[in-house]
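Recall that a protein's primary structure is simply its ordered list of amino acids. Everything else, from secondary elements to tertiary packing, is in principle encoded there. The following example makes that idea concrete.
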Amino acid sequence: MVTSKRVLVVDSDPEALDLVRRYLSVRGYEVHTAEGGEAGQAAFMRYQPDLVILDGRVPDTEGRSLCLWLRERSPVPILVMAAQEGAPGPVELLNWGADQYMTKPVALMELEARARALLRRVALSEAHHLSSALSSARPDYDDGHLVIDLDRRLVTLEGRPVSLTATEFKILACLVNQAGSVVPHEKLLSQVWGEEYVDDLAFLKTYIHHLRRKLTSPVEGDGAYSYILNKWGVGYRLRAEYERREAPGDDGQSDGWAGRPIAPVDASLR
């Protein structure tokens, strides 16, 4: 099986983590692991996975809390592995926000099959939305390469759907509404997270980094065209639809990412 899908596995058992990681990696998945709930939250923020596989009894930030935390921030599919004794029932697991659950001990072949089914469901949903959008009214942003439709929550780059988390989409919406103009850090933080986050610039940078990776396309020569640019010490802007597509040199607004190959993230947290 060939796939580039990114999977985050959260479990308190390092041996179980390693077993699942090796099994899925051999089958083409990009697998990241985290021991415990707090590490799981950090890994989710860093890697922005396409699927989360979660042990339902993660101790430090309990499985329920982590599942709810994930669901508040993203529509990412969640597969929960639950122990037979003392585990929440299927109704409770689904109420947490889980999309599917399995009872331990877990057969790795079935685990991979369920993961594949969840990812396929997401892909079909995105394809359906994309098909519906093709006959819709003019989108909010369209430069012939990147298309953004805020009402339908659809983003395509070079004709392919771009999967964004709920938070990434909120950030992009703020930038689209002022495309071509710099949106201050404080405004982005307050509109997306609330006034209490206006000083948390590192938090914003983490999300912008992942968003820029998803909204970067190749140009002629050795470079990449990044749609989101940084104005040092001020904020970020989305390139206007009429701007000429070329590699870096955007009036000094490149932040060191634009025009460079996007480096892959580490294959594991360990």
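The first strand starts at residue 6 and ends at 10. Confidence is low (pLDDT under 50) at residues 248-270.
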